[in-house]
Amino acid sequence: MKVIIHDLGSETTELLKERYDRVIEADGKYAPCQGCFGCWTKHPAACQMKDSLQKVCRQIGQADELVIITRNLYGGYSANIKNVLDRSIGTSTPFSTYRGRQMHHTLRYGKHDLWKVIVYGPATDAEKETFRYLAERNALNDGYERSEVVFLQNPAELEAVL
């Protein structure tokens, strides 16, 4: 399954629905993660908050390919994208295991193929380096075989990389 998370607005959501199995619009119309870990323990892979991200763990967890479109924010995800990713912590379990000679949480949904981040907006070389490292570590932690980061000056260039 191909899942995409983006912060570009509802008009982009409609266009992306034709290409992706699941489109998650990071529009900020949801609560931030409360850090209760209920999605780990009380009701696995489901958030206790009843909003548009209640089942985001399951949606992201079932993705073979996850594409994230985000505005560059000092070498990191935009706030709305970060909120979605925070709310998806239930894709793993509270138990730990070794992957790649490093300690990581056990995956609830198994391995995935591609964690792709498309970053738009101005970015310095240092921010690009930071973003590549961040995406690589996120991919490893969430069980993705590979990661890819693409930088665009503006979202109008998006068609060429999707």
Quick structural summary:
With 162 residues, the chain is α/β, with parallel strands linked by helices. It has helices spanning 10-16, 56-61, 79-86, 125-141, and strands spanning 2-6, 22-25, 65-71, 92-99, 102-107, 112-120, 144-152.
Series of secondary-structure elements, N-terminal to C-terminal: EHEHEHEEEHE
| SS strand fraction | 25-35%
Question: Could you tell me the radius of gyration in angstroms?
Answer: 15 Å
How many individual helices? 4
> pLDDT average, as an integer?
95
Low-confidence parts lasting 5 or more residues at pLDDT below 50? none
By CATH's scheme, which homologous superfamily applies? Flavodoxin domain
For the largest beta sheet, what order do the strands appear in spatially?
Answer: 2-1-3-6-7
Query: Looking at the structure, what is the overall shape?
Result: globular
CATH architecture group name: 3-Layer(aba) Sandwich
**Main sheet, how many strands, which sense, barrel?**
5 strands, parallel
Percentage of residues assigned to helices: 10-25%
CATH topology: Rossmann fold
Helix vs. strand class: alpha/beta
The first-level CATH class is given as Alpha Beta
How many domain modules? 1
Total strand segments = 7
In whole angstroms, how far apart are the ends? Answer: 15 Å
Describe this structure in words.
With 162 residues, the protein is α/β, with parallel strands linked by helices. The chain has one domain (2-160): Flavodoxin domain (Rossmann fold), CATH 3.40.50.360. It has helices at residues 10-16, 56-61, 79-86, 125-141; strands spanning 2-6, 22-25, 65-71, 92-99, 102-107, 112-120, 144-152. It has a five-stranded parallel sheet, with helices on both faces. β1 (2-6), α1 (10-16) and β2 form a beta-alpha-beta unit. The longest helix has 17 residues, at 125-141. The chain is globular, with a radius of gyration of 15 Å. The two termini are 15 Å apart.
